[in-house]
Amino acid sequence: MSTATYTGRSPRSDDPATGVARLWRRELAHFPAPRARLTYLSIAVLTTILFYYQYYLISGVSEQVLQSTGMSFRFFVNINVVSALASALTSVAAGVCDRYGRANVVTVGVLLCALTCLVGFPLASGAWAVAVCYTLLGAFEGTVLVATAALVRDFSPQVGRATAMGFWTIGPVAGSLVTSAVVSNTADEIHDWQDQYVIAGLVGLAVFVLSLLFLRELAPTLRDQVLVTERDRALVEARARGLDVDAALRRPYRQMLHVDIVGSAIAISVFLFIYFVAVGFFPIFFQTVFGFSTSQANALGNWMWGTQTVALILIGLCSDRLGVRKPFMLVGALGAIVTTLLLIDRTGQSGTSYYTFVAILVPLGLSLGLAFGPWMAGFTETVERRNPALTATGLSVWGLTIRTVVTLSTFLLPYVVTTVNPLVQDGPAVQAIVAGTDPRLDATQNAVVRAVAADPGIVDRAQTLAERYQAEITTAGALSRATQEALTAKPDDLMVQAGAVGELSGRSVDDVVRAVLLSESHVDETAALRALDPATRQALVAGPAGSTGPVDPAVLAKAADQLTTVLRVTPEQAQVRLTALLALPGDDLRFLVSDGVAVLRSADDLTALSAVPAADLAFLDEYGTVLENPTVQDVLRYLEKQGPRVQQAAEDAPGQWQTYFWIAVAGEVVFIPMIFLMVGAWRPRTARRIAAEHRATVDSELARLTATAAPVATTGTPATVQDPPAQQPQEEG
């Protein structure tokens, strides 16, 4: 190792800058005390939680986004693909954190994310505007992913690395938890999805201020070494005085492109396939396949993310206590395989309940926590074995790999699961029609539409009956509801019938009675009168009918011809009928012409109506009029067109999601053999032996540095290597 002297400042305290300069000059020349270090770690974890809350929020409101912007599900998936691709590219760029530091990158990233949420999304009214905003969030995420993980590594010795990384990995998981918790508890009150981003943006500004004022990082000469235990601090600081940082940073990616690093990054990326599905698409999966509400779908995430959050902390403590990582990864991988298989099984059963999924998602979250936290610790230790000065570069390789897998897995989704688009775009409308809750219709119309949705044959039957009883339907439509009810209650009541005939003919009940009596006493005469057209009837009574004067011969001839044709009698018989008609008293004849014929025809109409089967009348009364409504017809045409498509999608959706979940199982299986590529012991006894050997090495190295680094000061006393009083190394717990 080069002995080039470190030329950085040597402050009297942990903070190398004062005043306003503290806002951008954040390097610490000494390892901070435990309390200060915990503060920096907490800020790093908090910013990670915040960012992933903002990034995953689109999943929680995905259905509302699709409906309000009109974008297709494939477009929505492609937005996720482009965002993940942007994240992958910026993950590579984040390798510059090894040369330029981490804290400023994190702080600026938090501010940009907050502004995107607070300003960008509320102004995004269309699909493309949403795409731009979400791509920006993805680009920021790739950078923060690497920078915050590097900060956590810098401040945590290997013996506590799993706990520290467990806290860091809480960021993505807790971000998912916060998203689920906020959306599930506010979905019923906040109907505009953009208001959710306003909340996220305001929280982001608060965290930005906290990061700006208090977040710090180690100087390069300190962070570029391996810190195994707290006792290593004095040794690391002593080495830092002669560390050549530039030499350690030459050709960074060539130093990191080894099978243990790249292979491990690929392994965890495919293992977390089910995690990315859960983060991005579980809400829409539960809504479209099982009909859960937005709040219910997000509440299921609360169970999974809450369990995983607790598991990451507890498993990290256990892993550090035992000194091993790999056994936890193996158990977590096996648990993830089993629970994903259970998820596949229950996805194929449409009646799966909410709490059945809870019983699956809780152990799934536990399994992911078992594997991921220890893996993060083991991966950073694997990177350190290659070159501790390139931690951010190693993490950027992981960031690129994991985001590439996310991009590919997201891109594949609409080709594997093709049913989401009809279920999201047309499913709610079809469901409302089928349930009888279409907002465009009133209660009666919704009831009819609901019945037709259950039995489409209703429409054909209604059309057939309407054609068969067209005249009767017209008659029924001319009667008031009260008269119809009276006829139904007392069909044989003569006064009720007379009242109904009066309504149909527009005459009084007395006129109805008189017309009926005349028709019964003069059957042939009234039949003859009704066979004549209105003009001929009027012509008969215009002259001195019934008097001694004759009727116009032309009118008589015309009337005789009509009787012959209509009644199908001989001309002689027609003349006899006409003579008998004209022999009626003048008042009776004029009454029959002016009112009687109309009354008798109405009576015939009522008789025909009464002959219609009651069941047919009831059916037409329930459905006929409603089905003639234009809005109802539009709704039924939409249901006829989109209903089968939505129904087929609902039937196909479970199988397609199962296929997608099988890809996740394959990734979990691939993860297991890749565990063996990483550094670290399998047995706690081996880990304890390695730790003891390391302590002996540290003591020997400190002794050697103390003996050789003895330049003569002005007092003639050799200088020794040790920390300031506040920085004395602590014994391992």
- Supply the CATH superfamily name of the largest domain: MFS general substrate transporter like domains
Count of distinct strands: 2
Structural class: mainly alpha
The backbone outline, from C-alpha atoms, is rod-shaped
Distance between the termini: 32 Å
Major sheet: arrangement of strands: 1-2
Q: Mean of residue pLDDT?
A: 77
CATH class of the largest domain: Mainly Alpha
Protein name: Major Facilitator Superfamily protein
GO biological process, one term: monoatomic anion transport
Main location: membrane
GO molecular function, one term: transmembrane transporter activity
Present the secondary structure layout.
Elements: E1 27-28, H1 34-60, H2 62-69, H3 73-93, H4 97-100, H5 103-123, H6 127-155, H7 161-186, H8 193-214, E2 217-218, H9 220-223, H10 233-240, H11 245-248, H12 252-256, H13 259-271, H14 273-290, H15 294-322, H16 326-347, H17 354-386, H18 391-416, H19 420-425, H20 427-435, H21 443-454, H22 457-468, H23 470-478, H24 481-489, H25 494-505, H26 509-521, H27 523-531, H28 534-542, H29 553-567, H30 571-582, H31 586-611, H32 614-627, H33 630-674, H34 684-708
Parallel strand pairs: 1-2
